[in-house]
Proline--tRNA ligase (Paenibacillus soyae), 1150 residues
Amino acid sequence: MKQSSLFGSTLRDVPADAEAASHRLMLRAGFIRQLAAGIYTYLPLGWRVLRKIEHIVREEMDRAGAQELLMPAMQPAELWKESGRYNVYGPELIRLKDRHDREFALGPTHEEVITTLVRNEINSYRRLPVTLYQIQTKFRDERRPRFGLLRGREFLMKDAYSFDTSWEGLHDSYQSMYEAYTRIFDRCGMTFRAVEADAGAIGGEGGTHEFMALAEIGEDTIVSCTHCDYAANLEKATSVIRRSEAVDSSGTSVGEIPMAKIHTPDTRSIQQVAAFLGVQPHEIIKTLVYVADEQPVAVLVRGDHEVNEIKLKNALGAESLELADADTTMRATGAPVGFAGPVGMKIPIYVDQAVTEMAEGVTGANEADYHLRHVVPGRDFELAHAGDFRNAVEGDGCPRCEEGKLQYHRGIEVGHVFKLGTKYSETLGAKYLDPNGREQPMIMGCYGIGVSRILSAITEQSHDDRGIIWPAAIAPYQVHVIPVSVKDEAQTTLAQELYDRLTAQGLEVLIDDRDERAGVKFNDADLFGIPYRIVVGKLAAGGEVELVERRSLEKQVISADEAMTCIADGLRNLI
Amino acid sequence: MKQSSLFGSTLRDVPADAEAASHRLMLRAGFIRQLAAGIYTYLPLGWRVLRKIEHIVREEMDRAGAQELLMPAMQPAELWKESGRYNVYGPELIRLKDRHDREFALGPTHEEVITTLVRNEINSYRRLPVTLYQIQTKFRDERRPRFGLLRGREFLMKDAYSFDTSWEGLHDSYQSMYEAYTRIFDRCGMTFRAVEADAGAIGGEGGTHEFMALAEIGEDTIVSCTHCDYAANLEKATSVIRRSEAVDSSGTSVGEIPMAKIHTPDTRSIQQVAAFLGVQPHEIIKTLVYVADEQPVAVLVRGDHEVNEIKLKNALGAESLELADADTTMRATGAPVGFAGPVGMKIPIYVDQAVTEMAEGVTGANEADYHLRHVVPGRDFELAHAGDFRNAVEGDGCPRCEEGKLQYHRGIEVGHVFKLGTKYSETLGAKYLDPNGREQPMIMGCYGIGVSRILSAITEQSHDDRGIIWPAAIAPYQVHVIPVSVKDEAQTTLAQELYDRLTAQGLEVLIDDRDERAGVKFNDADLFGIPYRIVVGKLAAGGEVELVERRSLEKQVISADEAMTCIADGLRNLI
């Protein structure tokens, strides 16, 4: 491809609201352009990368035995009403009416469509299992589209759905997708972790994993072990807490000292209480009042810990969960917010495991401006509902191995595998006849990859001050040939010869045939991030070129033939 | 691919409203399924065909130097308001609001988006010309979706747009797309004609061609010459009419007989007048009153001819044109509908060329229940506005060659190339600086292919009573291997061996490994329409098979090796 003909400009400046590096770089390099908030055009360079990712996804899906189809974007609203998601999905679901006033949704996902499709096509166990996938434009009206392709409103997704006759079958289908995902992200050259995620009310044990591209900009927190391969997202991650020291700071054996009520005027927050009493936050027991399905409950966590509402909601089996307002707290505890405590509490108390390991602690006294000291869990309040209700924190013990400690990373969710079970097959009637002629619901799994998001995730992981650094497998071109001066015949001749030879090898080559200054050309090349660059300059007459590897920016002056050999070696997997 | 795992069922019955053969066959063969009116899912077999068509389109677009990108489906309504099409487009444009109540349209086409994109990327003649294309799902809320994929509401389209600095440049870009289209439809194995079409107010001479797949179900009429390569759609086709006989049926020389008013009670239609007076429809001059931009005009055509409203509208330069209602006709002619005539008419009269060639004719008398005989064009009414205002009819003389006569075909529009000129670049401000530093509007062309419609068009052209007959280049698989009995080891072994050998040659093979009766298998195979079928039956033990060519259904019993050779010969272009 001649760069003089390539559509798309490089930009010096990008909008101030482009916060993420990937967003800025893809705008600057002319890979994408915004049409509306969260809605982008892929220019030829960006589209080439996307097509390569798509190709890898397709190859690995096919290899895993999944069959490709294409479902419509426009979905009748009745389907969503049948599954019960039409209202639940909220304003993220884009709704429209056709000319006959019939309601439609623009598909953010296709469980409804695929389940009714399979319901109509398959009625016997003989035709199962089957895994189906599509690569398609999806629509989701995000409240706050941001970071370019990372959180868009119209995006490219691969979604797959498996249908089995048993949970063991589902496990195999799931495993097969899990492995395909691992190959896909590996082949794309991504640094990622597959992490356990919360499956909510369905999915069962090991029922869902998220594939996270590690990147600072990521909106998700991944918790992983320094020693073993344990990894989970923050909603799901558990940890181990050792029993705290059995001696308090004054040297007295704790647990034997009786509770004491102390006047603590205007000390509501953990920080205020700690400062006032001269204790550490981890010596305080924090009491929070929630309303779960309209019933108040209290949850206790250590003062330095955060409640994990997903864990709490799962433990309660609640549909809804939210922090109680001031009135509800007052009614439930007899005290204003900031002075609640478990002693004498009338509502159910859910005690985080780390609190059960405390020898004693400070709590609210359920009375304005008073706290209790020397409160002993199990002695002064019941531990009937103990469990893991908090976010794991860095430094906690790994729940899987004895030795490791937990650490945090930031991640971008690029894939998700999920055991749906019979949620949709029950609701939408996707049944099959088993060998005994009995009707059974199909056991489903669903599997998504954010195809366009990968573009951004890789850019986040792989760039420097000067531009993007594409992994060879998904680079828009593999080699960038740059004659420094297109007015110099030796340079243009050698550059063209290299272009022809590389192209003949099956490589994709961009040649910068523009009549521009060398600095402009080199800047654009750095921005584009093509893995190998051959600069054909003054040494062209002697058959020598400068070979630059984009990642390291290492340069070597070598003969044109040697450059060909180096590139062939470097790209052996692609030729 | 093992047929036992293939997703999608063959159907015996299809809905009664599936009128078109392609619609019925693709439903029956399990290629597509309807989700809502005009909205379809492509099952794996249908999707494979579609992907092959897509691949051919992409290859030929790239070969023609067009660059691929992808624009969003969701387009801000402001863009459509800026171009002036938001209201004009009517209910076919699907409209929606996002969560912030901003208006969007779902793209039925992308002139607005591409023009503003190019406006922002290109500002100098140095960066032109450029042709950009995408293959994308389009949305059009058809009033009456029908014929399966032939007229859908969500469909796959290739749309391309060219940007030039001159009309000569546009001509080259246009020609390049025209040739690419010819290669695409040839490669897809389609029978088609490129026909001249009406370019309306813009486009200029030779400004637009439609690519028509010939098929009876087609909604368009193509007019072509029996002798030369003239072809146009009915809106555009012109023809040559010889002067009528200069002697009337009574033997008197016509043109010298004066007009005569005749009482013709209740004879309003051409048929009634012809019957009452004992003349032929082509001896009658039909007078129709239209309202063009709110002004009444009359148009005269021969009694056996139809007014071509597009030609009339173009000649009038009118924005709107519709038949006058009874009141307007009464006011304009002084007579009720059915008795209008040119003699003494006060409103402008547009006379079709075929009428100017009549020696004399019968017309209305502008008086209820009266007609005039022996009316001579040019003598009894003016021919100031004469022209081609009628549809060409079969048997008319060809406007291009001396010898041919015109004939009709039915066609399905599968492609369209159009010289847009500066319509969008002027409205949306897509200007560039010419070598003199002066701002000029870009000269545009647009080029569409109905990718999913091709699937149906080919099925219409290529099927028989038993099913679809796919051209090899786009068949879902090229070879269908059918062991008659999967319980017979000799058969399954030989079938598997053939499957492996054919696959190793790079062919796509479907093997019917189902435990079904031979009749079921053969019926399904006929329905699928895979070009070559190898039936592995009782002769398998002796290494012999039956090779069936789907198109002819010719069978030959030959050795497995000979079958391999026959197939390799037949599919030489694909291997």
In short: Chain B is about 25% helix and 30% strand. The first strand of chain B starts at residue 32 and ends at 36. The domain at 260-387 of chain B is CATH 3.90.960.10 (YbaK protein). The radius of gyration of chain B is 29 Å.
